[in-house]
């Protein structure tokens, strides 16, 4: 039994869009590159041909990987979630207890994590520290720059 991969509906849609591009646009581009390289003659010393074949292999591996992940996707509809405790899909507003700086993170699946856009993986140290907590709680998170203390200001489920 394969392990389910939790993700938001937006994350699922983004993976499907990436898969469509790999299957149509990228496959066609690579097929043309292989045909072009073949037309140059001797394949044994044809760098363009070998590069195109390698690109084809990498593209097909990525397609297979995305197909696998999408087949195991457990899409979680955040608009149907509620509650006061932090769990998958929650958007959590925190304040750094040392700097008073506010940050906001949404807890998402591993495949859709993007810290620059405020999306942290359910498996990340900060998400693991937050799960099960609620507004008013303090959490300690071990970061690459040392331990940080945050107070949870707000827990929301923004679909």
Automatic annotation (TrEMBL):
Matching Gene3D superfamilies: Transcription elongation factor, GreA/GreB, C-terminal domain, Transcription elongation factor, GreA/GreB, N-terminal domain
Domain Transcription elongation factor GreA/GreB C-terminal: 84-156
Residue ranges of every copy of the Transcription elongation factor GreA/GreB N-terminal domain listed in the record: 5-75
Molecular-function annotations in GO: DNA binding; RNA polymerase binding; translation elongation factor activity
Family: Belongs to the GreA/GreB family.
Alphabetical list of HAMAP family matching this protein: GreA_GreB
Protein name, as recorded: Transcription elongation factor GreA
Organism, as annotated: Rhodomicrobium vannielii (strain ATCC 17100 / DSM 162 / LMG 4299 / NCIMB 10020 / ATH 3.1.1)
Organism classification: Bacteria, Pseudomonadati, Pseudomonadota, Alphaproteobacteria, Hyphomicrobiales
